[in-house]
Amino acid sequence: MTVIASTPVRTPNIEVCVSAPPPHPRPDGRDRYTISEVAEWTGLTAHTLRWYERIGLMPHIDRSHTGQRRFTNRDLDWLTFVGKLRLTGMPVADMVRYAELVREGEHTVEQRQELLERTRRDVRARIAELRDTLAVLDHKINYYAGVHDRTPERA
């Protein structure tokens, strides 16, 4: 995963902020984490992490000689990305499909791009709905604050 400093990036009709992921708790080379450490760092439960692995959302997780999962910084980066996908409202099935496409290799780049573009369209539509909702809330707040003339309140 490439680390990019927090910088606004302009694309047509929208401004996007690309930010660096949070720093890893351990530097590369010493980046073996137990499931409880990953749960603490990510805020996910151990049950969720095991489920992600079981459904194919996580890549293969290395195991210690005793069979305990050992996560790497790369796994933490992937979980950060999955967290962003969750925030978009992307269905779990689509996230799993995306993970499968990543594992299949470079020949799936167009399919991955298509899936992400569809999700971006959905997010933009939700943002528009939220802006409309915010405008209604602002109107009501201003009304109650007495900023506008005291005309009769509408629903």
What does this structure look like?
α4 runs antiparallel to α5. β1 and β2 form a beta hairpin. This protein is mainly alpha-helical and 155 residues long. The chain is 54% helix and 9% strand.
Radius of gyration: 21 Å
SS element count, helices: 5
Helix content: 40-55%
Poorly predicted regions are 1-15
Topology order in helix (H) and strand (E) letters: EEHHEEHHH
Supply the helix-strand structural class.
Answer: mainly alpha
Sheet of most strands: 2 strands, antiparallel
- Which outline best applies? elongated
Quick take:
With 155 residues, the protein is mainly alpha-helical. 54% of the residues lie in helices and 9% in strands.
How do the helices and strands line up, and which of them pair or pack?
Blueprint: E1 7-11, E2 14-18, H1 35-42, H2 46-55, E3 62-63, E4 69-70, H3 73-88, H4 92-104, H5 109-144
Antiparallel strand pairs: 1-2, 3-4
Task: List its traits.
two-stranded antiparallel ribbon, 155 residues, mainly alpha, 54% helix, disordered N terminus, single chain
